[in-house]
Amino acid sequence: MMRTSSQRLGAALACTLLTALALPAAAQTDPAREVAPADGWAAMAGGTSGGAAATAEQIYTVGNRAQLLAAIANGGTRPKIIKLVGSIDMSEGQPYTSHADQDLRAMVRLPSNTTLIGAGPGAGLANGRIEIIGVSNVIVRNLHIVAPCDVAPVWDPSDGATGSWNAAYDAITILGADHVWIDRNTITDVPVTDDTLPIENGKTKQCHDGAIDITRGGNYVTVSYNMLDRHDKTMLIGHSDSFSADIGRLKVTIANNVFNAIGQRAPRVRYGQVHLFNNYHAGAKTAPVYAHSYSVGIGTGAQVISHANVHAISGAAPGCASVLQTLNPDANSAFADTGSLLNGAALGACPVSSAVGWSVPYAFTPRPAALVKANALAKAGAGKLSTSISGGGHVGLPPGTLLPVKGGTGVPTDTLLTLAFDSAPVLGSSGTITVRRASDNVVVDRIDISTTPSATDTQTAIPRSNLEIDALGLGAMPENAARARFVWYRPVTMQGNAATIRLHSNRLAFDTTYTVSVDASVFTGNVGGVPFSGIGSGAGWSFTTRSAPASRTSVVVDDDGTTADFRTLQGALNWVMAACSTGSSASGGCNTVATPKTITLKNGLYPELATLRNVHNLTIVGESRDGVRVGAANFESLNSGSGASATSAGTTLTTSGRVPGHRVLGGGRSALLVENADLLTLANFTLENPHSRSTLYDNQAEAIYFNTSTTPAAARLVAKEMNFLSEQDTLQLKGYVWVWRSLVAGNVDFIWGSVMAALFEQSEIRSVFDPASSSAGYILQARATAGDAGFVFLDSSLTAGAGVTQAWLARSGSTTSSTYVDNIAFINTRIGPHILPLGWCVGTGTSRTGTGQGSCSSNPPPWSGSGNGGATDAAGWREWNSMDLAGLPLDVSGRLGWTNVTVNGASATVQLAKPLDSTTGLATRAEVFYKSTAATGAPGGWVPAP
Fold this sequence. Notes:
Elements: H1 5-22, E1 59-62, H2 65-73, E2 80-84, E3 87-89, H3 99-105, E4 107-109, E5 114-118, E6 124-126, E7 129-133, E8 136-141, E9 144-146, E10 154-156, E11 164-166, E12 172-175, E13 178-183, E14 186-188, E15 199-200, E16 203-204, E17 212-215, E18 219-224, E19 227-233, E20 236-237, E21 251-255, E22 258-264, E23 268-269, E24 273-277, E25 280-284, E26 296-298, E27 303-307, E28 310-314, E29 324-326, E30 334-338, E31 341-342, E32 345-346, H4 369-379, E33 402-403, E34 408-411, E35 417-420, E36 426-427, E37 432-437, E38 443-448, E39 468-472, E40 485-489, E41 492-495, E42 498-501, E43 513-518, E44 523-524, E45 526-527, E46 530-531, E47 542-545, E48 554-557, H5 569-580, E49 597-601, E50 604-606, E51 610-613, E52 618-622, E53 628-630, E54 672-675, E55 680-683, E56 686-688, E57 704-707, E58 716-720, E59 723-725, E60 731-740, E61 743-746, E62 748-761, E63 764-767, E64 777-782, E65 790-794, E66 797-800, E67 807-811, E68 824-827, E69 830-831, E70 840-841, E71 846-847, E72 850-852, E73 877-880, E74 898-903, E75 906-911, ...
Parallel strand pairs: 1-2, 2-5, 3-6, 4-7, 5-8, 6-9, 7-12, 8-13, 9-14, 12-17, 13-18, 14-19, 18-21, 19-22, 20-23, 21-24, 22-25, 23-26, 24-27, 25-28, 26-29, 27-30, 28-31, 34-47, 48-49, 49-52, 50-53, 51-54, 52-55, 53-56, 54-57, 55-58, 56-59, 57-60, 58-60, 59-61, 60-62, 61-63, 62-64, 62-65, ...
Antiparallel strand pairs: 10-11, 15-16, 31-32, 33-35, 35-42, 36-44, 37-38, 37-43, 39-40, 41-42, 43-47, 45-46, 71-72, 72-74, 74-75
């Protein structure tokens, strides 16, 4: 009997009801907690979960630029979910004025272990770009992204036969990152489509770059169910033909996406193992805008597998060559297709080999080509998901909040000032914040956010508003009250809807009442719906500071607690220096190495520069290693030089580098500067210099500079269970240093200095991705003192962060006149595959050993202090019992060894690096530090212990 449609529907509903009664309903996972699907590269090698495991305090809901950046900054790399509500304009309605302005304000750089997801239809990003650089485990979903338009594209007359305009910014950049899932986003040029752009030099002044570019070692990436709409150069996979470090990486799945009115690069592949399946391409060869050039580009080393992709390209001639183009392929380039269609017909033979050298390693089931279009159009693009996730992630304060509160008491003398607005305030270009002593109205501090503090500068690269000079430690160094570390710093920072003001160092006294005034021109924004009109000195914002701590030798720092002695590390250092430095009165009972001093850091963020001078036997200990983060961005172009304290700020302008014409104050580029502080112990926290390397600046950026003498009586530094993080010169060291069970991360000479002996024991030395250069980095540049141990690594490991494919053990900084030696020894070291087989870097430079004949750029050969400068068991570049990361013996047969150098015009053979014959003098702490005399006045007096 034939049933009616209503009867069939009723039967189906009954069946569904019975099934529901028989089986418990499965809990549906919120899209914000979903992980990358199993049918893509992102699910391999451990999978991609982003912030799926985020706790409530790491779940953020954001609706503007400030909130988004605050959520990104909070919580470090702990799993986090950021739910974006509405469309965020990263320019905040203020058009970008230059490349540098756009480079800074448009950036959304995601950390590891993050999910960024649109709440639902309408969520997205305009005038911005998402950067996933040198990190791991990131998910971006459900966002409508307007492709960024470069305000300053560059004309390159050598690009092509007639020149071309080149733009700088991608909508999503995946650079040196691994385990990334890009899913259900829409990326489009609309409203700034190419037909709206001007014609200059006979060409469209193109302001768009890529939509999703995956380069420089990007790996384990899945791009699924995205709508790529009206864009030309859409998806680049692979950095360049010459960047062979991409071989073995660039494992990318591109599945179920819609490529609508795309000119080219959907995708364009070099080197990668790329899997394409069930993508739908729609376009026209004769379209007046975004005419179809090709879909898939096969370049050098490309290995592409294709399943059931559908190309609906009006005006395309039959055959694969209409949608696939070969772009400088080589013998390893290949494209293997099964079941794909062009305008309803099979692709047929393609103009490149089909002999791919790999097979898809995960289970997948491609839809028949006949079903691809409907599925992709129904599911691809932003707004198809909806998340209801919520949490307690903090991105703002109640509007009108003032911290310290009006009339507050017990306020630490190093307090920060905070003002909360209805939404993100905009910093003005003029005006002052003034703090007065209430008893006599005397001004004790004034912050000027105009360009006046840097009036002598002639440079234009570094923004000069909100740039002040601080004298760190001023008044706290007893040998001279005028002595300080002079640095440039940014006194006003924005986070969420709040502005925070960092006063100059050491300006407030204990047990004193102060008033605060803020000029109306400092901020633009509303408070309670009313435009900010400033805070006058009589408006009642006053507070009273706490009494002095009870102890000179034990104080507590907390960024937000109510019982701590200080808010900042520098506040605590000032207190200890004033009473317990070697220049302090002996009556205080703490000015010698015999008296231990302790600063305890509670969990929190301490984004500051700091300095310590002439305090012995001080321990700075954190509540937790990852929960305490100390350090502000500082770098060579901002505060040039290694740095030192002085009695006045320098006045000379730089004359070279990327930022000539900037005043050099003398305080240097490290986050923490330490001078002559014997037996300093750092324990259980993170010390970082968060400056991100950029081609705009000179980027040397230490986390710490430990400065002492280069004699047997030099000061000692101990680091226990620490994280030292930077993107370049992380540690600059002198004297005697013991680093135990710690992490040191950086990329260019990130451990260096003029040490007597520095022992890294049971520690991880991690090379991290360098966004400013594609060259291999260097772990060490030793400038050790002749006759001492130099840099020794014992039972440690050399690892690589996301995107790092190559690194050298060391390079030499030696010249023909240098007296320091290249003393480095790796003993029982586990070494990752990122270390180049040659190990040690020698190029064509000249040192006291001679002129190098190596291929490592212009770096000179090392100088060990021996007769011909070559390595011996006692000095130079050395290695013993190297292992891989699994602890198995490492093949070091390719290491630099006996090598030709040029000496006085003649070729000479010198052993520039060697395997140790004996570890005598290097295998224990007692041996490494034997020559130290600081402890007893005689050699052999210092043997540090955990």
